[in-house]
Specification:
GO terms for molecular function: isomerase activity. It comes from Granulicella pectinivorans. This is Sugar phosphate isomerase/epimerase. The chain is of the alpha/beta class and 319 residues long. The chain has 10 helices and 10 strands. The protein has helices spanning 15-23, 51-63, 82-102, 133-159, 177-187, 197-201, 207-214, 230-236, 263-275, 293-318, and strands at 2-6, 29-33, 67-72, 106-109, 163-167, 191-195, 218-223, 225-228, 252-255, 281-284. The strands form 2 sheets. The chain has an 8-stranded parallel β-barrel with strand order 1-2-3-4-5-6-7-10, surrounded by 4 helices. Helix 9 (263-275) packs across helix 10 (293-318). The two termini are 15 Å apart.
């Protein structure tokens, strides 16, 4: 297993400087944003039409000895406002094309969330079965919007030799192992998941147990932690809509790996991923509001490198 970094946390730095910095930390794999929510500071989709720009990009990757674990375009391609949804869907389409051009096998995105009917202005994330009209909305979303879009987009990705890793994230239709596998069953084997355990923790889903449910549907993995605050959870519940920067009053916040759960937990997480066939990249994602990007990256890399290196050594010994 290898350690990588999702580079938006370093978006203020030139790409070559990012690679030099990460190389100095013993990291040689990156996940790059191409647009939508992550932005595209280090991987511009204009390279599809600009061969000179594409060559410079490839040469830079090769010069520093890096590989790309995934291209990421997290967005809401099902947004009911066509100006938003169509634009985000187009970023996804172009990202698939660029991944094929670069020989990158995985594109990361969200599943998206439609509105409640044709002509809706905003997404409508259904979280309960009653009153019964919510189930009517949910059925309409899956039948009329989710299924047609992802069947077509899954086939498009497969035609280009690319897999789409959907990050299970509340607010979108695929947010749990069950909803993720529902989408995969509909759209086909080119659709799987970008597994981020931080989103499982706060939903009350055991992230290690969920690996056993997802199995070979795991295409890519984010390394991010969550810390729960029971003294606040009794009043907020897990569906806490306060800003992430209101740490004192939230029921949970995202943390750098090791700050929510210790080394023993992460060792079992890595071991279970391997047990169920994933031996790819752990891509560090920084969203810890209590640590700067520099501190969060440095601490996460040191913490996870210790775990990954030791487990690799044990695996090599047994072989």
């Amino acid at each position: 297993m290898k350690l990588g970094v999702f580079t938006p946390l370093l978006s203020q730095m030139p790409f070559a400087d990012v690679l030099a910095k990460l190389k100095g930390m013993g990291i040689s794999t990156v996940e790059l944003g191409t647009g939508n929510y992550p932005g595209g500071a280090h991987c511009n989709l204009s390279m599809l039409e600009n061969k000179a720009e594409l060559k410079v990009f490839k040469d830079t990757i090769d010069e520093y000895g890096f590989t790309i674990s995934a291209l990421s375009c997290h967005g809401n391609p099902l947004h009911p406002n066509p100006e938003i949804g169509d634009a985000m869907s187009e970023v996804n389409r172009k990202t698939i094309l660029l991944a094929a051009e670069l020989g990158v096998s995985t594109v990361v995105d969200f599943s998206g969330c439609p509105g409640d009917q044709v002509g809706a202005k905003a997404p409508n994330w259904v979280t309960c079965p009653w009153p019964p009209e919510y189930l009517d909305v949910l059925k309409w979303q899956w039948d009329e919007v989710v299924t047609p879009y992802w069947v077509k987009r899954g086939a498009f990705a497969a035609d280009h030799g690319v897999k789409i890793a959907i990050e299970m994230h509340p607010g979108f239709v695929a947010y749990s192992p069950e909803t993720m596998l529902k989408l995969r069953a509909i759209a086909g084997p080119s659709i799987g998941c970008n597994y981020d355990p931080s989103h499982m923790f706060w939903q009350g889903i055991d992230p290690i147990g969920a690996i056993r449910v997802l199995g070979d549907a795991i295409f890519h993995v984010h390394a991010k932690d969550t810390q729960m605050y029971p003294s606040n959870l009794v009043k907020t519940g897990v569906l806490d809509t306060k800003l992430y920067t209101e740490e004192r009053d939230r029921g949970w916040i995202f943390r750098t790996c090791g700050y929510g759960h210790g080394a023993e937990w992460w060792k079992e997480f890595v071991s279970t991923l391997r047990m169920f066939g994933y031996d790819g990249v752990l891509s560090i994602e920084h969203e810890d509001s209590l640590l700067s990007p520099e501190e969060g990256l440095t601490k996460a890399a040191a913490f996870l490198n210790e775990i990954v290196i030791k487990q690799d050594a044990v695996a090599a010994w047994w072989v």
